[in-house]
Amino acid sequence: MVGSGATAEVLISAAEIAHRVDELGRELREVYHDAERPPVLVGVLKGSTLFLADLLRAVGIDAEVDFMAISSYSASAGQSGVVRIIKDLEGGIAGRDVLLVEDIVDTGLTLTYLRRALGERGPRSLRTVALLDKVARRIVPVPVEFRGFEIPDVFVVGYGLDFMGRYRNVPDLYAVRDLARLANDPMLLVGPFFGSDGRART
Ligand code: PRP
User: Fold this and answer.
1) Is the N or C terminus of the chain more exposed, i.e. has fewer CB atoms within 10 Å?
2) Do 20 and 55 touch, CB atoms closer than 8 A?
3) What is the pTM of this model?
4) Which ligand 1 atom is nearest residue 105's CA?
5) pLDDT score for 3
6) What is the pLDDT of residue 83?
């Protein structure tokens, strides 16, 4: 546990993540290794970046990478799943095997939107790999063909996931136990996570 008052504790260690990413890499290699053209791994910015980098190496086959960035659906949009594309793919995906790479699926609204938007572009196949799946929070059912871990309804940071832009480069995945306290002081975990020399503790 780190932070005074046990603000956060490790939910999944870096070693457990690495092991699971290797397993996912093997699964994905089986699916894509004999495809005519390399699959296109689409990273959804920004949370998926660390996962994508590790997964790409774990898959270990010829593959292409592209990125999308979307705005979070607004509160006023409610459950409609309305999101906006901030950065679109650079390449076309018609006829391609596309793998959406997400750090986390929560309500499922973002993924539902992305699958619809990319599905309209005529990919040969469209699948999703998500490191984390918060099934308990799902509002819309959406297929997640490959997933690393199902996690409970807790706020998580580390391994790409942030709180107000911070903590993405913390190697372990932490569950934040006192979110109100962190919201009140977003730098609360900087000391415990990064130490006095500024390096992320492992
Ligand atoms: C996260 C995550 C998904 C989305 C999942 O992105 O990367 O894209 O939320 O939530 P949902 O299932 O409820 O739609 P976030 O908005 O935190 O952006 P980030 O990846 O840039 O941190």
Assistant:
1) C
2) no
3) 0.93
4) 12
5) 56
6) 75
Structure-token pair, residue 97: 């095997």
Tell me if 194 sits within 8 A of 200, measured CB to CB: yes
Question: What are the residues whose beta carbons fall under 8 Å from the beta carbon of 119, sequence distance 6 or more?
Answer: 126
Mark the ranges of the chain whose per-residue pLDDT is less than 50.
none
The finding on whether 45 has its CB within 6 A of some atom of ligand 1 is yes
Measured between alpha carbons, how far is 68 from 160 in angstroms, rounded to an integer? 15
Among the residues of the chain, which ranges form H helices? 14-32, 49-59, 109-119, 179-184, 190-194
For residues 67 and 96, the answer to whether their CB atoms sit within 8 Å is no
* Token pair 């391609």 in the structure block, residue: 96
Interval between CA 155 and ligand 1 midpoint (Å): 12
Strand partners, 192: none
Handedness of CA 149, 6, 199, 164 (dihedral sign): positive
At 172, is the secondary structure helix, strand, or coil? coil
Alpha carbons 170 and 190: distance in angstroms, whole number: 10
CA-based angle 31:33:38, to the nearest 5? 105
Looking at residue 77, its pLDDT comes to: 53
Annotated catalytic residues are 106
